[in-house]
Amino acid sequence: MAERTYPFNTWYAVAWDYEIAEGRLLPRRICNKPLVFYRKKDGTAVAMDDACWHRLAPLSKGKVVNDNVVCPYHGLVFEPGGRCVHMPSQETINPSACVRTYPLVDRHRLCWVWMGDPALADPNLIPDLHWNDDPEWAGDGTTLHLKANYLLAVDNLMDLTHETFVHQGSIGNDAVAEAPFRTTHGPGTATVTRWILNQEPPAFWGEQLGKPGPVDRWQIIHFTAPSTIALDVGVAPAGTGAPEGDRSQGVNGYITFAITPETETTTHYFWAANRNFDIDNQSRTTIWREGVRKIFAQDEAILESQQQAIEANPDKTFYDLNIDAGGAWARRKVAEMIEAEQATMRRAV
Amino acid sequence: MAERTYPFNTWYAVAWDYEIAEGRLLPRRICNKPLVFYRKKDGTAVAMDDACWHRLAPLSKGKVVNDNVVCPYHGLVFEPGGRCVHMPSQETINPSACVRTYPLVDRHRLCWVWMGDPALADPNLIPDLHWNDDPEWAGDGTTLHLKANYLLAVDNLMDLTHETFVHQGSIGNDAVAEAPFRTTHGPGTATVTRWILNQEPPAFWGEQLGKPGPVDRWQIIHFTAPSTIALDVGVAPAGTGAPEGDRSQGVNGYITFAITPETETTTHYFWAANRNFDIDNQSRTTIWREGVRKIFAQDEAILESQQQAIEANPDKTFYDLNIDAGGAWARRKVAEMIEAEQATMRRAV
Amino acid sequence: MAERTYPFNTWYAVAWDYEIAEGRLLPRRICNKPLVFYRKKDGTAVAMDDACWHRLAPLSKGKVVNDNVVCPYHGLVFEPGGRCVHMPSQETINPSACVRTYPLVDRHRLCWVWMGDPALADPNLIPDLHWNDDPEWAGDGTTLHLKANYLLAVDNLMDLTHETFVHQGSIGNDAVAEAPFRTTHGPGTATVTRWILNQEPPAFWGEQLGKPGPVDRWQIIHFTAPSTIALDVGVAPAGTGAPEGDRSQGVNGYITFAITPETETTTHYFWAANRNFDIDNQSRTTIWREGVRKIFAQDEAILESQQQAIEANPDKTFYDLNIDAGGAWARRKVAEMIEAEQATMRRAV
After folding, report:
1. Any chain C CB within 8 A of the CB of B184?
2. Mean pLDDT of C30-46
3. Prediction ipTM score
4. Mind listing the domains of chain A with CATH numbers?
5. To the nearest 10°, the Cα dihedral for C205, C209, C212, C215?
6. Chain B within 8 Å of C98 (Cβ-Cβ)?
C-alpha cells in the first residue's frame, strides 16, 4: 500500500452535520491531512488545514471569535477563507500568510469536503444519499472508526456473500451465498443486483415483514466512486410478482454508506439505516440502528484483522472470485479517478 | 539486524503438543510468518499460512469443519494439504487456489515445523530432546515469550558464567565464573563442558542432593544448530570419583530448550526441566518447574534490556571474551546454515 | 527533522545534582545516546555509555562497587574512566576493552555533560545560572519531560508574546503582546528586552508586589546557545524611575532554563524559579514553584501538539513574524555551532 489509494478530486463525507457546530473547532484527519472544521454564525461550514501558517500549532486547539479562527499559540487570526487578518505585535500582515481552506457542503445530513482542485468542486457531484433526509424515509446511523484501508470496506459492501459467513443468524444464511447476482457499471458507478427467491427469511427480515412464509429478498448495491454506497434491501412475500416479489407488499430499507480515508490504513465509515414503512415509530428506528450497529461490528472485526494480515504478509496478493465482480468494478472506477488526476497533474507541470 | 538471522531449512518447535488441539485453530508467528495450527481427527497436526488465498483474511479466525479450515470472511474451504476445495457462489474452483502448508511433526512433547524446502524435511533431523518424554525422566516446562532476538537467548545459554551475576543466590555463585571449561564442536553442534570441583553447592543444588559437604558440579551444554540446547546439569559428592565426582551418587537434570524466532526481535522459548531421580514425586516436579521459571525470568529481564540496548546503540558492536567460545561456535554453525541455504537459492535461480 | 538539530561540543544539563547519588546508577538518554550516571565516594559525578563493551547490556541495571560499575550480565567491571578492570573467567584483560565516558561537572545545582570532543570541555563555558544557588536568591524548580524537539522550547521562551494567548489570566494579558521589544545578540548569545509600561499587573505579579496601582513590567530574556535561558522578570510601581520603573522598589525573579535534547523529538527541560526578596519564606518558594509548574504545563500542551502537527504536516514549513526576532537569532547561533562542528570534523578526516 505504498501508493496513494484514494483520489483527491471528489467529495468525501467528513462528519455528520451536527458534529460541526458554531463556535466549536472539530479536528479530523481526511486523506491523511489534519483538518479543522467549524460553522459560521450564518450556518455555513468551514474546513481548513489544522496547522497555523506561522509555526504549525494546531488551530483546532484555539478558538472561534466572530467567525474567525484564533491560533492557540500566538493569536494569529484567520478568516473563514483562510487569510490571516491579525498578527501579534505587528500592524503589517504578510500578504502571503494564510492557511488552505477546502470546499465544504452540507448534504443529506453529512458534511462533504473536496480535497483536490477547488475549481472542480461542483456540489452536483455529491452522491445521492437522499434517503438520509427524505421525509418519506426514517432512519438513523452513526460512524465507525475502522482501522483498515477504506477500499477493504468497499470490497466488503460490494459483495454481500460474506453475510452467510460473517453474519450468520442475523441477516446471513446459506441462501445468500447460493443466489445468483448480476453486475453492471457506468461512468463512476457500479451496481450489483441479487434476488434470493422463495426462501425462508433470516431472523431480522422475518421480524420486519411480520408475515409468515417464504419471501423473495433483494440486495441491490449502488456504488458511486470512490466510496459511496446506497444499499437497497428488502423482502416481499414470495410469489406476489414475477419474476420477483412485489415490493409494494414487502418491506424496504436503504442503508447508506459514505466511506472516507482517514489515512491509508484507517477509515471514517458513516452509515445510516433508513426504511419507508412505519416511519413514525422511533422504536423501530432504534431497533434498526442498533441491529445494524451489531452487524457492522462483525464486519469491523474481520476488516481490521484483514488489514493486519495484509501488513503481516507483504509477499502475498489478492485473488478474485466470481463474487468479486462488483468489487473489481468499484476498484477499477477508483483507479480511473486516480489515473485521471495524475494525468492532469503531469500536464500541469 | 537488517539481515535475516535464522535459517529456514531446519525444524523449529512451534508449540507444546497439547496447545495444538483437534478442531481448534491456533495462530502463531514463526520466522516472521503468520501461521495457523490445528489437529485433524486422526491426531495429525497441520500447519498452514494464516491468510486466505482470496483476500488474506486470517484463517485462524475461521473454523475447522471435517478436518478442513473454513475462512471466516467468505467461507472458502481449504483441506489439510492447503488446496481450496470450496468457493462461495461458484462451482468451478480455480486450480491454483491454495495456501501454503508446512511439514509439522510431534516429537518429545513439542510440535516442530519446517519452514524451508519441504523436500529436505527429514524428521530424523529433529534434535534429540527425549528427556522430555522418556519414562526414566520426570519434568515439566513452559514457554517464555521473549522480546529479544533468538540468538541472544542462545548466547545466554552457551555461557553459564552469567549465573554468577544474574542468578546469584539460586544457582549462581562465584565458583561458576572461576571454573575452567572446555569447548568442542561437530557438524551443526557445539558442546561446552564445565566441572566445578569441590565446592559448597549453591542453594538449589544443595537441597536436591540432600547431603551435606562439598560437591563436584557439572554443566554440559549440548547445542544443536540453530537453536536447540540440552543442558546436562548436576552435582555429586566431591571425591566420589576421579577426576570428577561419581554421577551415580549425585543428582542429575536435563534442561531442554527449543528456541524459535517469532520475528527478528521476539522469540518463542520452550523449556522443560527434567530429572532422573525421585521421578514419581509430582511435588518435586513442581518445585523444579517453578524454581527454573524464576531463574529464567531473570534472564528474560536481562535479554530484553540487551535487545533494547542493541537498538538504542546502532553504532556499537559485540566483542567476545574467552567465555564466549561456545556461543561463538553456535553462531558460526547458524551462519553456515544460512550461507548454505543462500548458496542453494542462488543455484536455483 | 532528518538532520541533527543539536550540537555536541557544548555543556548540557543532564540532571539535578541530587538525582546523581553515590552508589546508584541513573540511566538517561542525552542527545539520543543512552548514558548512565553515578557519583563516586569523593562526590565526583561520572557519565558513561550505558552499554557494556562486551554485549551492550545496560550498565545501569548493574551495580556500583568501590566506585566501579559492574555489568549486570557477565560481571565485567569498569572504572570511572571507562576502562575495563575485570573480566569473568580470564586473567588477561583486552586492553581495548572500555566504555566511553564524558566530562561531567556539577554547577548551579545541575550536572552538566559534554557530549563532543572532550579536549574542548572547558567548565568555564558552562552558562551562568548562579541564581539557582546564590545565597541572595531563593527558589526551586523541577524537570519537565517534553515530547517535542528542544528548539521548540527555545522558540517558546524567546518570544513571550505567547503569554497573552497561552497563559491568559495568570501571567499573560493583552498588554504583553502589544508592548514593543528590542533584540540584541553577541557571540553565542541573544537577548530580548521588553518593558510593558504603566499597566495593571496580571494576577500573579500583582500578588507578588503587594501594592495597588499600575506597574512597569520587564521581561529580559538572556539566551546562551544552544539552549540555556536566564529570564529576568519583574514589576515595579509605574513612575518610580525613568524611562522605566525603579527595580529596587519592585519585585524581581530569575527563571532559569537548561533545555537538553533527549532525542530529536523529546527534551529534558530543567527549570527553577528564583527571587531576591522574602527569600527565607519557604511558603513563597513553594507558591512560585507550583505557580510556574502550572504555567509550564500549558506550554507543554501547546509544544507537544506543535510537535505532532509538524510530524503530521511534512509538506509545511515555519514562517517568521516580527516577534520571532529573538528566536531567529537563537536558532542562528545554534546553527553556527553545528556548522562549526561539522567543519572541524571534515578537517579531521
Report:
1. no
2. 98
3. 0.92
4. 11-124 (2.102.10.10), 128-339 (3.90.380.10)
5. -60
6. no
